Amino acid sequence: MRTDPIEQILRGLYSAALYLLLPITVYHLIWRGFRQREYFQRWDERYAVYRSPPQAASLWLHAVSVGEVNAAAPLVNALRRERPDLRLLVTTITPTGSARVRALWGDAVEHVYLPYDLPGAVGRFIEHFRPSAALILETELWPNLLFGCRERGIPSYIINARLSARSLRGYRVLAPLIGRALRTVRTVAAQSHADARRFVRLGARAEQVLETGNLKYDMAVPEGLATFVEKFHSQSGARPVWIAASTHEGEEAAVVAIHRRLRGRWPDLLLLWAPRHPERFRAVVDHAHAAGWQVATRKLTRWAGASDAVFVIDTLGELMNFYACSEVAFVGGSLQDIGGHNLLEPAAVGTAIVTGPHLHNFAEIARKLDEAGALRIGADADAVADALEQLLADASLRQDMVAAGQALVEQGRGALAQTLQLIAPVLPPAQ
Fold first, then answer.
1. Which residues are catalytic?
2. What is the CATH number assigned to the segment(s) 225-412?
3. Which of 233, 303, 342, 420 is 20 to 30 Å from the Cα of 79, by its Cα?
4. CATH numeric code, 5-213
5. Partners of 110 in beta bridges
6. Residue range(s) occupied by CATH 3.40.50.11720 in the chain
């Protein structure tokens, strides 16, 4: 392979900048650690320093955090079922992603944090695990990582690939380098036609990009869901329930205001509240207490009681179960300019959905749900409250939305089969 001098220059400048910024990574870990203590742990993995002997992985999959781990779950579960001989390595960046990996698969898969994109750390990581192939979820475009795979003969794929218009603009400064890195991967398996076009604009060759659909549609409904819902309602009582899911700090005051308004009409209304980040668990309990409501939490009481006004879901991995316990869901990250969160989970378990207007991370899914009549999008917090009130009051309308959402989820399935077919040639022979 001929050396691209421009690539060498760009990689050198990029890597030099990362090494100059290395002290900031330590500051970042400390700063995050004060908010989430897990960031104080396992620093050696962040810099690819391993105490165990090198051990080869059959297949490596990278999923940055909880959302990507959940998206990867159908694929990992299928691989474990069809190829139990494979030794799987799953990397994440966030502690919540790490916790989700362990909750889903325990010790059945190897797990470490992905190191920073420093040439030395990337090299140590790849040499330690020596994966036969790399599967990178959604939008994790780390140049040194992709170049490192190419140079060591490791075929790499970007699967369930997603690239919003905003992310494309954000990569503008690094586009000459990112484009070259993209051209090292075998295939970009894009979620949608719009995502595929954006990856080509970023630098991927058109023949590299396939539209395989979104793995999130292939999610499995949790086992024992009906029993869980029955147990929940036996403890909380026969009363209306709504859920505020994946909320962020800037949305918390709006959730309190909405719940206060809705309880003016339904005094026994129960709010299930699931903050996006664990560091906000305590804060939302305090918000609810300050509003004068009786509050229970999943960790402390396990279930909401008949007199509780707010039940805080301060655990990970149970959100779909609690969606199914609710008449209507508000999915957060959408009243602020964050871009929204997974709208398919409530749709899959049969819950009517309301969001705010900021949905750029899930634009295609939101569009399809909206066109199918399975989603209400509020322009602001007041409009979200209006939609929630209308849906709580109209069981027939909720049921129509639920039917439309579940039908859309079923129609969207298929990305898993295409992805398995795509990666089959690089899997090691069955033993």
1. 68
2. 3.40.50.2000
3. 342
4. 3.40.50.11720
5. 89
6. 5-213
